[in-house]
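Recall the central idea of this unit: under ordinary conditions, the amino acid sequence of a chain determines the structure it adopts. In this exercise we apply that idea directly, starting from the sequence alone.
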Amino acid sequence: MVLLVLALCIGANTAIFSVVNAILFRPLPYDNPERLVRVWATDYSHGYPKSRMSLPDVIDLRDQSETMEGVAAFFDLTATLGGDDPQHIRVEAVSPSYLSLLGVKPQTGRLFSPDEDQQGKNRVAILTHNLWQRRFNSDPAIIDQSITLDGVPYTVVGILPAGFKSVIPGLEGEPDVWRPLATQITPQSRGLHFLMVIGRVKEGVSLDRAQAEVSTIASRLEQEYPASNTGFGIALEPLKQAVVSDTRAALLVLFGAVFLVLLIGCGNIANLLLARAIERQKELAIRAALGASRGRLIRIILTESAVLAFAGAVFGVLLAYWGIKVILSFSPGNIPRLDEVGIDGLTLAFTFGISLLTSLICGLAPALYLTKVNLNDMLKETGRSATASASGRRFRNGLVVSQVGLTLVLLIGAGLMLKSFYRLLNVDPGFSSDKISTMRVSLPRAVYTDPAKSMALFERLVENSRALPEVETVGAVDFLPMSRPPSCNSFTIVGQPPPQPGSGPCTEMRVVTPDYLASVGIPMISGRPLSEHDTDKTTLVALINDAARKKFWPSENPLGQRVTVGNQTFEIVGLVGDVKNFGLDSEATPEMYFALRQSPVSSMYLVVRSSADPKTVAEGVQRELHSLDKGVPIYSVKTMEQYISESVSPRRFNMLLLGIFASLALILAAVGIYGLISYSVSQRSQEIGLRLAVGAQRGDILKLIVGHSLKLTGAGIAIGVIGAIGLAGLMTKLLFSVTVFDVPILVGTSVLLTVVSLVSSFVPAFRATRVDPLIALRQQ
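Accordingly, the structure predicted from this sequence is:
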């Protein structure tokens, strides 16, 4: 039993530490990672403290900085890899210096040369080791051969080593191909913020000094280009911090939770060892009489505790291997560096340290007990020492009170997470996800150079898919809800004074087919929907959502208003409901919808409402697409429910782990209470027999024992509530629509713990009522 508890507690701590170590502690797998930084554009006027940068700003920063060794930009996209079996792949367009900035060396071939960002010279590509194996059978002859991406030929110049990963994985996952980012500048380029940027600070230069310099550069650009750069700054963030920032708080909370489980388990074992020390007091007294010092007796106790702890650590490491697999099996896909999780030297060192700490904690109670009792009195006693029993009871009671308090802290945390997750799942996303399958189609730009051609294919695909069996409605949109991070596209309102540079309105923008809104159940509030009659020959029109109305036309009717986007002016003809585009826990943002026939795009998601199996729907759409163009595959086949599920997966992950730890803590606390009451009953059997002999009823004995358990539980609950309130700040970021001082959760978890205490103490209490007074008194 002791080994099982130790193995569970140490194994759980080892498993969680392996995750924390891989994500938070282990250096990034790049050359001198401590000097790498993420470079952000700051746009506080629109509420974006961390935004992407424009290409001209990146070039200016690279050329003007004296504290940066290098600056490289990148962005992710997708492409169709041509051949007999066209395949959708992930591509990362990067500055030529990107890979060398990270210190990457190719397995075969070379990296990009500095001039391969020039138009005409940038038709080169580097393959990942994975794609090289999967698609080209690890053929080394692929170097200097041509592949086609979206119908455009690229020459393969290198293969990256196995295991190399991008700094920031794209929306579709890790890239398959890297290609140079062309540095073709247009007058509009400085206003297009679409690039992620990294940099390397020069050796010996502090981050503060580098930040001061880039802030000066940002101010200079703001003065030179007020139309595009007013309000924009530049911020540096250590790359590792940027990679793991979204997961740090949750991981630390989980790590703290599993450590509390360890302390609760240690409390159980300490109680057992204390009881054993009391049972062995005659033996220990004899050792003392033979010359053993009190310190030597304490070392004996601690050594026994250490042997148990290290044995538990061995089994705990074995359990940790299994625990890591369990954690990874239901972890959300957006946690960085999960593939690096494993038991390494640092994790084993942590396990050794935690087992040493465990041995000290478990051996502390019996060791302290030995420092307080009189060994000579122990030797003289023929029965149990009254002094020893009183001292031992105080230790044991204190341990159980501590266990109950720590358990309540975990139960409150798990309860808050559960309630938070329940409320999150009941948030209206603004659209219907029932029976909706989605898939993406991206047309090769080199083939579909005419926007009318791409528009025609999408319209025919929607029309043909509508005729598939069991299909109710079909629509298309360039970006689904919850499929991309936020963006803010600038526009102006006709008839209003021109905004100050950098302070103009901006909104999310989507291109849709007429049936899209009805297909996903986004309601029309007023006005009319988009229709097939909205073409490039008619008035350009747009729909806005209610969030846009509240922000830009709070006191007037937006219908009939006109907005200018780029060099085109659109009339607002309809008002639609809000959508949670970036997760159920996000606020609805202003949004505009444009008609496909008036704003053609080359990539769209098909939205199919059908009672058929999603796989069957996707196969049917793929057949229809192949009948139109055999060189274009579908990809990102998911249901809308999957998008919603993925958006809440981090919170689900946190809730499940914290719930598991809280449940384990509750079981350990129940075992602790049961063990304490059982031992107490055995120690007090003579007292109980005497009470029964002088007329006490069995109900009185039951009340006595259970009442003692409830007193300890009440004290533990009081400590636990205070502890939970004290740790409330750590939970705030992890909760949704729930306060850390949620009274129903505080009361509910306290009641649950009280019930568990009652159940745990009832069996030994009932056994106490069966004590035979004559036998108990005869033992006296």
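Confidence is low (pLDDT under 50) at residues 382-388.
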